[in-house]
Amino acid sequence: MSDLNILLAFYGDDFTGSTDTMEILERAGIRTALFIDPPGPEDLARFPDIQAFGIAGMTRAMAPAQMEEALRPAFERLRRSGARHIHYKVCSTFDSSPTIGSIGKAIDVGAEIFRSDFISLVVAAPPLGRYCAFGNLFARMGIGSDGQIHRLDRHPSMSKHPTTPADESDLRMHLAKQTKKSCGLIDILQIQGDQNIALAALQNCVQNNDIVLFDALYDHQMRTIGELIDRFGTPDKPHFSVGSSGIEMALTGFWKDQGIIQPPAAWPEPGEASPLLVLSGSCSPVTARQIDYALANGFEEIALDTPAIAAGTHDQTFADDIERGIQSIRKGKSVIIHTSKSTQDDRFVQSHQILKRNGLNATDIQSITATLYGGALGTIAREIASTTNLHRIVIAGGDTSGIVARALGIKAVSMMTPLSPGAPLCLAFAPGAAVDGSEVVFKGGQVGGEEYFEVVRLGKF
Question: Are 122 and 216 spatial neighbours (Cβ–Cβ below 8 Å)?
Fold first, then answer.
C-alpha cells in the first residue's frame, strides 16, 4: 500500500481518543498523521515523514452491526499498510456495552482480519491516571488533574455515564458480555517480576486464551508490556491490540530503550490565540467545571436549546446562535457554545425525556444526540469560522467531535505541540474549507484541569 516505514497504525473509536494516541506517538518521536477516513496511498503521500497513522472513527457511538460495517474496510486498509502493530483504540475508561460501542465486536472483527496469535488488551495508562490491578480498572477523576482515584464501578463520572455506565471494574467480566473469546490475565505480580517470568506467563496464557489482558500501575511496567508484545508484530503479520493509548506508551517505551526512536528535545509554545472558540458536546462533570471556570474568567457562553433540537422545533439554520457567536468573536471575546453542563443540566434531562417519549432506547438516544448536537455545533462552527478570523478552536466531547470535524471539512490533522495530557494542539488539513491551516484541539470529557480552556487560549503547557 505504501513505501513508508510504518511502525504502527490505529483506528480510534472516537476523535478525542485518536488525538490522544497521536500525542503519545509524537511525544516519543514518531511522526504521525490522523485521518478522518481510511487513507489511500495518495493521502499518506501528503505526509512523507510519518512512521504511524491513525483513523479517527466514531464506533463508540455505534451499534454492533454499524461497527462491523465501518470496521471491516478500515481494518483491511490497515492490514495492507505494512505496519507491524495494529491498534483498535478505545477510551481509557473502557466505555462500551453489548449494544453500543461494543469492544467485543471490534475484537471479533479484528481477530478475523488480522489473525494474530493472540490479541493484547492494555487499558492501563498511568500518565493519564488509569491503572489496572488483577484485572480491575481504576481511574483518576479527570485526566491531567489531581483528582481522586476510584475503582471504575465507583467512579463518580463513569459509574453514571448516560449511555454506558460502568457497573463492572473487572475488564474480563465486562468484556465477556460482548464476545465469546476467552480472556486471560498477566497480573501485576507477573508484570513486576523478572522479564523471563513475565514471558513464560504470557506464553502459558496464550495457550488457553484468545485475548490477554495486561495489568500495570507504573510507567516502567508499560515498557515491560511493550517488550513482551513487540516480538509478535511484523509487517507481513501485524500484531493486533486493543486498548487505551497505553498500547502506544508500552511500545514506545520499549522502542526508546532499543534506540529505534528518539523523543524530540523540546516542544514549541504556540502562544496566545484570542479569541478562542470552544464547541462542547460533552456532558462530563469535568467539562462542566471547565466551562464554569472559563465563564468566570471572561469567556462568553451560548447555551444551545437542545430540547428544541431534540424535538425538531429549533431553527435548523441556527442563525441566531451563529450571529451571537460572530458578534462575540468580533468583539474579541472568547466563546463557549455548549449542549449541556453535565447530566444534571435541565437541558440534558429534558432532551432525553423528549427522545424517550418518541420511543427511543438508550442506544438510539446516544446515536441520535451525537448526530443532532454534533451537527448543530458543526453548522454553527463552520459559519463562524468562515465569517471571522478565528485561529484556534477547541472541540470537546468524544461522541460529537468526529461529526463536528467532518462538518468543518477537516480531512486530517497533525500534532503541533502538547498542551494537556490527552488533548494536543493540532494543525487542521481541510482543503477548501475555512479552517484549513487552523489550530484545533479535540478534548475528551475527562481531560484537563478546571482551567483547561484558558490554558488552550493562552497556549501554555
Answer: yes
Coil, strand, or helix at residue 446? coil
Task: Assign domain 8-258 to its CATH superfamily.
Answer: Putative sugar-binding, N-terminal domain (3.40.50.10840)
Confidence of residue 329 (pLDDT cuts 50, 70, 90): very high
**Owner of C-alpha cell 434531562:** 349
Phi, psi of 338 (to 5 degrees): -130, 155
Q: Which residue spans of the chain are classified as CATH 3.40.980.20? A: 277-458
Domain 277-458 classification at class level: alpha beta
What ranges in 41-194 are assigned the alpha helix state H?
41-45, 64-79, 103-114, 171-176, 188-192
- Indicate the pairing of strand 130-133 with strand 136-140: antiparallel
Question: What percentage of the chain carries pLDDT values higher than 70?
Answer: 99
Query: All 3 cell numbers of residue 445?
Result: 470529557
* 62-84 residue pLDDT tens: 999 999 999 999 999 999 999 99
Q: Which three cell numbers stand for residue 443?
A: 478534548
Query: How far, in Å, are 75, 146, 460 from residue 418 at the CA level?
Result: 28, 18, 9
The span from the first CA to the last CA of the chain, in angstroms, equals: 38
Q: What's the pTM?
A: 0.90
Q: What is the rounded distance in angstroms from the CA atom of residue 300 to the CA atom of residue 337?
A: 9
Instruction: Enumerate the CATH 3.40.50.10840 domain ranges in the chain, comma separated.
Output: 8-258
